[in-house]
Design brief:
Pfam families: UCH. The protein is an alpha+beta fold and 1254 residues long. The chain is 50% helix and 11% strand.
Length: 1254
């Protein structure tokens, strides 16, 4: 051992020692090893010192017999090793096997304990906790507790170690007593936290009397309440809660919002478990000590729940005063809302009717005093929420009558400068409008044989075909209506409840927000059996009966000329024209009476004896007042014009005002009517007017303008000058496709537009094609390369396909010999071959950056799940990068995901995947059999289980504890990939999880076959949460009454971000953000799945089989929150918020490991050969999208017939027709080629030779 320390071959030496000791042991060997060990421990080189520790482990665990380590020499030697290792936590942890052996044999004598304890206490603060954990773990192995060990732990008490010792039979009571003493007598918050931490693992019920005796300790009050709650969760016990409630009520003002949430959650749990309530006096003090309305809201929601009312309501003045306060303080609206819904849903609650009336009065006053739309809509939505539709008519009738009486008794015209009266009257009018709209969702005016005052343009009416109960009907509706309106009309026609009706088109249910104009206008009506009842609306209880009352109607007509005229107009326009209304002279200064009268004229214009005179009057108003009247009035005035009008001033005025109009309302309808009138005009427009007409941003307006003779008749130079002054030239090129360009402007136009040619915009292609036909010196060579690349070689995707680029290419061929040869050569090399017949490249390019998946019949459940898995970057990267899967199903998924990642096709064909993926039963996917999306998801997850690193991304764990006779009987850990949530009767994820967390009483529980049956309480807690969390909403249930499966489509809101801290038992990140939703549309047995994936805060990607669209956050939530039409979220996908955290902000996950960027740990490394295969398919898609079009076929045909007897061209034409065109669906184009070939066969022997060669 004389060698220099750093040159000691310690690694080889350790290997030799391990080998020798595996088969040979002797006293001499032991002595030698101890000498080497002691020498290594004396050397201040960390690697050599660790080698000494490894030798120590070998000696004490392998070489020395157990009885020998009890000898004083060996104990002293080990104490020395500990002393030398004490500065490093890793060294101490390495010694754990030896320490455990000493502990299990009661050999932890004073020196060893002292060295270990001193070593741990000398560790750095950042790792000392690990040292305490090690000490506790060793102590728990001791069979006979040594007084010296207790002295070390208790002098001074070490809370961290005591927490661990609670779980050991030898130390449990000692640890609990000491922690209790520290908590109650020394007011140690840390000790109380420790007791809370262990309270669900051990029985602390005997501590309750002592805790209650110290309940007035302000410093410990919150923690004591939390501890009591956890104790009685663990061991159900009846306790007196008066002191708890009283102490909390008097000290409530000292808590923050977060503390209020914590303490109220515990208090409400205690009250429910002990079946006690907060007295009126304590409730009064509690409310008084709430420092803000947020705290107050938490208190009310905690003490008033669907499961229990935890306050005394009889003679509770404070409670009633609190509700009344909500009438003038909107910050208390959430309290009023909670109480209103609770007492409307639970009629058996004490004082229910009284409290409902008080709450309604408060909400009514809040509605009138609402300061903005957000406040007003929140209150009106609440008042118009009904669980039972049978209450709806009477409630709405009473609401409208209350509002009308308020308007009648508060004349706004006499209080025109009173802002309070104005605001209250306006809110009342808006609420009437919302009541009418709500009524319209259930019954239409047509149901009563009535029609509204609003005029609907005849050309806006469309006919819809429906089939219901085997009968076919034709229904006429406004083309701007949506499916929801059509359902109300069908409801009236068929005398069925609106909520029972679902519309289907092409086998799929149609969302209620869908515009009818976007459908094929053919629907099948299906009914939900449980809703087969008609809403009890009659003409007597409908709000129309009030609004047509003479007293109310006269006042409403007067209010049209008031500050709330617009709101009154919106009411009156929805109901029938009152008998007392008389059309008077039109006065545009009275905006809404004027507009209301225009609707009357529009309805009756053909009946008027002075029709021509009135139309002249309309023209005068347009010329003089058009720019100051509201948009809807402009629309009606233009609509009422005589089509034969020749008033140039009127046309110019309307066109200009329309062009500068910023409000888009009625814009499209005005412009269509106007262009219809002026289409044949020929007026030289002033550039000031012409410029906004031609270059307006609205594409439809420009399209109509450019088709009109009025615009085409303008001078080119005038339009060109305006164009040159416009900065957005590329957006306005289309105007010159409508004009004849003068020859003297050819060169200037070409030079000006040439910089934009690379865009291959269809307008610039059309302009240049037009120039090339008329300009003999057209400089085609300047644009040749761009055209050849996009339309001949097809190496880049062209923006559009038309005849224009091929006209330009023909021009190049005819005028440039060198380019001609190059183009012909490129054609020869690029012409695609196909073996399919009637081939059409129907796959357009992918939309919105994602590929869809085609539905093979009933495989939407597969598509929706795969889109969600593909959206999770680390899962996607792993599946794409792993090309060594053994499982054929995973091989198929690997290939599919690679295609989805790199393909440019609109959708991927699922046929191959369906034949290669096998389910639980080993069978392939049956395209005709609809299955459950969650079942497919579970099957997919099961295949990831063999890859622990990946599986951990979606795998969590729960623990079920069975508690009986005051102790934990057993525990059971269960892993999960999805968390199932009960939807029925719940409103949100947290509501459902609280239901799942409620302990379950199990009678006749047996631990094993030999134990006696007892009653136990089982509780579930999450002990591990994965980075990606899937929730399955239990939308499907079994009805005992009908003995059939039913779907639960009730509204169920889910949070964009959610914190699950209250449901877990670990320290680490518990916040998640939503990233995906799988939706089920339809009924139990007839439905459709598709997916939404989140793009940003405001946008979602809708992946509906082959369709990929972008929708707003509001649209997505309206579709997925659940509605009676059968559209509702089924699976929710959440991502933990630390998943994409940068390394310096990374946090610990449930297992204690550091989570930074999970996706960066699984980089994307695709199979190059597979990617190359996909890229070749992408190029083929581009080629096909050009070569299999009638425009390209016409180009080849023209090329062949303009270059007679050219062998190369004839060869290209023959090759194209026989390799591509003959297989295509372009039958007419192919027929032209055949006719031309037939003629050439007769005329040229050379052509016959070319044909034989090909």
């Amino acid at each position: 051992m004389d060698t220099e320390d750093r040159k000691i071959p310690y690694k080889k030496l350790i290997g030799i020692i391990t080998s020798i000791t595996s088969f040979f042991k002797s006293e001499d060997l032991t002595t030698t090893l101890i000498n080497i060990m002691m020498h290594f421990m004396d050397i201040d080189i960390i690697d050599i010192k660790l080698a000494g520790i490894k030798i120590c482990i070998t000696v004490y665990t392998t070489v020395l017999p157990t009885e020998t380590i009890l000898e004083e020499y060996y104990q002293g030697t080990f104490a020395y090793v500990i002393g030398q290792a004490s500065s490093n936590i890793e060294s101490l942890v390495l010694l754990k096997p030896v320490l455990i052996k000493f502990a299990e044999n009661n050999a932890l004598v004073g020196d060893i304990l002292d060295c270990l304890w001193n070593g741990i206490n000398s560790l750095a603060p950042s790792v000392i906790q690990r040292g305490f954990d090690l000490f506790a773990e060793i102590a728990l192995k001791v069979k006979t507790v040594d007084n010296h060990l207790i002295e070390l732990i208790l002098n001074p008490p070490n809370i961290d170690i005591l927490c661990r010792l609670v779980n050991g039979p030898n130390f449990s009571q000692l640890a609990i007593n000491e922690l209790s003493t520290l908590a109650e007598k020394e007011s140690s918050i840390e000790a109380l936290d420790a007791l809370i931490k262990v309270s669900l693992k051990t029985n602390l019920v005997n501590m309750i009397p002592e805790i209650l005796s110290n309940i007035n300790n302000k410093q410990l009050l919150l923690k004591n309440i939390v501890l009591i709650n956890r104790i009685i969760i663990k061991t159900p016990t009846i306790i007196d809660t008066k002191e708890i409630v009283s102490s909390l009520s008097h000290n409530f003002s000292m808590y923050s919002i977060k503390e209020v949430e914590e303490v109220m959650e515990s208090l409400s749990s205690i009250l429910m478990r002990t079946r006690t309530k907060v007295t009126n006096d304590d409730f009064s003090i509690l409310i008084k000590n709430c420092t803000n309305n947020e705290s107050l809201t938490i208190v009310i929601k905690s003490l008033l729940t669907n499961n229990a009312v935890l306050i005394e309501l009889e003679n509770n003045k404070v409670f009633k005063e609190l509700i009344e306060r909500a009438s003038f303080d909107f910050s208390l609206f959430e309290i009023a809302r909670h109480i209103y819904l609770l007492f409307n849903e639970n009629h058996d609650l004490p004082n229910c009717e009284t409290i409902k009336q008080i709450t309604f009065n408060a909400l009514w006053n809040s509605l009138l005093k609402a300061e903005n739309n957000e406040q007003r809509i929140s209150i009106s939505d609440l008042l118009l929420t009904f669980n039972d539709n049978r209450k709806l008519p009477d409630c709405i009738y009473n609401y409208v009558q209350t509002c009308l009486d308020f308007l009648l008794n508060n004349p706004i015209s006499q209080n025109i400068n009173n802002s309070t009266i104005y605001n209250e009257c306006r809110n009342a009018a808006l609420f009437i409008n919302e009541c009418i709209e709500t009524s319209s969702k259930f019954v239409s005016l047509e149901h009563f044989g009535l029609k509204s005052h609003r005029f609907i343009v005849p050309e806006s009416i469309i006919n819809v075909s429906i089939e219901a109960d085997g009968e076919k009907y034709e229904i006429s509706v406004n083309q701007n209506a949506n499916v929801a309106y059509l359902i109300t009309v069908i409801s009236s026609k068929l005398n069925r409840d609106v909520t029972s009706i679902i519309l289907y088109s092409k086998g799929k249910s149609v969302p209620v927000q869908t515009k009818l104009a976007s459908t094929d206008l053919n629907f099948e009506v299906r009914f939900r059996a449980e809703y087969d009842r008609v809403p009890p609306f009659t003409l007597e209880n409908h709000p129309i009966s009030l609004l047509t009352n003479e007293k109310y109607m006269n006042h409403l007509l007067e209010l049209l000329n008031s500050p709330i005229g617009e709101d009154i107009y919106n009411i009156l326009i929805q109901i029938p024209t009152p008998k007392q209304f008389k059309a008077t002279d039109l006065d545009p200064s009275n905006s809404y009476l004027f507009l209301y009268t225009l609707h009357y004229y529009a309805q009756h214009i053909d009946e008027l004896p002075n029709k021509n005179e009135q139309q002249k009057n309309f023209e005068d108003i347009i010329c003089q007042k058009f720019d100051i009247i509201v948009p809807e009035a402009r629309y009606l005035l233009v609509l009422l014009l005589d089509k034969e009008t020749k008033n140039d001033l009127l046309v110019t005025k309307v066109l200009y005002t329309l062009c500068i109009e910023k409000n888009p309302q009625y814009f499209t309808r005005i412009m269509r009517k106007l262009w219809e009138i002026v289409s044949n005009y020929e007026i030289s427009l002033d550039p000031k007017i012409l410029s906004p007409i031609i270059f307006k941003d609205n594409a439809k307006f420009r399209e109509l303008a450019l088709k009109s003779h009025l615009i085409k008749s303008q001078e080119f130079d005038k339009v060109w000058k305006i164009f040159l002054s416009n900065e957005e030239k590329l957006n306005h090129l289309k105007v010159f496709t409508m004009f004849e360009i003068p020859p003297n402007r050819y060169q200037e136009v070409f030079d000006t537009l040439l910089p934009f040619f690379d865009s291959l915009d269809e307008s610039i292609l059309a302009i240049f094609a037009n120039l090339s036909e008329k300009w003999s010196n057209f400089p085609a060579d300047k644009i040749a390369n761009v055209l050849i690349t996009s339309y001949i070689k097809c190496t880049t995707k062209p923006q559009s396909i038309s005849s224009n680029p091929f006209k330009l290419i023909m021009s190049i061929i005819q005028n440039n010999e060198k380019m001609r040869e190059y183009i012909l050569s490129a054609l020869n090399q690029t012409i695609p071959e196909t073996t399919e017949w009637n081939y059409t490249p129907t796959d357009s390019f992918k939309c919105n950056e994602k590929c869809g998946l085609n539905n093979l019949g009933a495989t939407c459940y597969v598509n929706s799940v795969l889109q969600q898995i593909f959206n999770i970057e680390p899962l996607r990267n792993f599946i794409i990068s792993n090309d060594e899967f053994i499982d054929p199903s995973m091989q198929a998924l690997h290939k599919l995901f690679t295609q989805m990642m790199y393909s440019q096709r609109k959708f991927i064909d699922m046929n191959i995947f369906a034949t290669q993926w096998t389910g639980w039963d080993g069978a392939c996917i049956n395209p005709r059999e609809q299955q459950d999306a969650n079942e497919f998801l579970m099957c997919l997850f099961s295949r990831l289980e063999m890859y622990p690193e990946i599986y951990s991304l979606i795998n969590g764990e729960t623990e079920t504890r069975f508690v009986g006779e005051g102790k934990t009987i057993s525990t059971q850990k269960t892993s999960f990939n999805t968390l199932p949530l009960i939807v029925l009767g719940q409103n949100s994820i947290k509501d459902s999880m609280k239901i799942a967390a409620i302990p379950e009483i199990i009678e006749n529980y047996k631990v094993d076959d030999n134990s006696k049956p007892i009653t136990v309480e089982s509780t579930n807690k999450i002990i591990t949460l994965p980075p990606y969390l899937f929730f399955q909403l239990k939308r499907f249930d079994y009805s005992i009454e009908t003995q059939t499966r039913v779907k639960i489509d009730q509204k169920y809101e889910y949070e964009d971000e959610i914190d699950l801290k209250e449901f877990v038992e670990f320290s680490g990140e518990t916040k998640y953000r939503i990233i995906g939703v799988i939706l089920h549309q339809g009924e139990v047995d007839v439905g459709h799945y598709f997916s939404y994936t989140k793009i940003n805060e405001n946008q979602w990607r809708c992946l509906n089989d082959t369709g990929v669209t972008i929708v707003s956050d509001n649209v997505m939530k309206n579709e997925t929150y659940g509605n009676p039409e059968g559209s509702s979220a089924y699976i929710l996908v959440y991502e933990r918020i630390d998943v994409h955290s940068p390394p310096d902000t990374a946090s610990n996950d449930a297992s204690g490991s550091i989570v930074s960027s999970i996706s960066s740990q699984i980089p994307l490394s695709p199979n190059p050969e597979l990617v190359d295969e996909v890229q070749k398919d992408n190029l083929r898609l581009i080629v096909d999208s050009v070569y299999f079009t009638e425009y390209f076929a016409d180009f080849i045909f023209q090329l062949m017939n303009t270059t007679n007897n050219n062998e190369e061209v004839d060869s290209i034409a023959l090759k194209y027709s026989m390799s591509s065109l003959v297989h295509s669906s372009l039958a007419d184009s192919y027929s032209k080629f055949v006719s031309s070939f037939s003629q050439k066969f007769h005329e040229s022997e050379n052509f016959m030779n070319i044909f034989r060669t090909i």
